[in-house]
Specification:
It is a single chain. By secondary structure, this protein is mainly α. The chain has two domains: 37 residues; 86 residues. Helix 2 packs antiparallel against helix 3. The model has no long low-confidence stretch (mean pLDDT 85).
């Protein structure tokens, strides 16, 4: 297997995993709009909060990865419930444009807060998959 094929396989797997994350985001957004009939555009910012939680729990504080994921899920669930009671519940009966404006304000607030707290530097968990050995390469 040539080195190009290995890079192609890696790019394919990365694209498949990233596409899966985007599909889950789209499914969640569809569920939120379909079930509670609210235009909720700050949905991805809750995912960002969960990702930062996992990063800091695992990479900075040294928690095991499954525990860091569980902590991220719990924090996002709590933040979502809090935002539902503080932001969404008062505007459930209002027009969709008002819902869009309010959730857009939450979107910009969470983005600005994340920029202030975490900066704009790229971060990752530092995990890597083991090498793929095929034959006598």
């Amino acid at each position: 297997m040539e080195i190009f094929d290995v890079f192609l396989l890696e790019a394919f797997l990365n694209g498949l995993l990233f596409g899966g994350v985007l599909a889950l985001l789209a499914l969640g957004l569809n569920l939120v709009f379909g079930v509670i009939d609210v235009v909720w555009i700050c949905y991805a910012e809750l995912v960002m909060v969960g990702m930062y939680t996992v990063y800091f729990a695992y990479a900075v504080h040294g928690l095991p990865l499954p525990l860091a994921f569980a902590l991220g899920i719990l924090l996002v669930a709590a933040a979502g419930a809090l935002m539902h009671y503080l932001v969404i519940r008062p505007i459930l009966a209002s027009e969709p444009i008002n819902q869009l404006l309010v959730t857009g304000g939450v979107l910009f607030f969470l983005q600005a807060l994340a920029t202030l707290l975490f900066g704009v530097e790229f971060r990752n968990l530092g995990l890597s998959l083991p090498s793929l050995v095929l034959g006598d390469i």
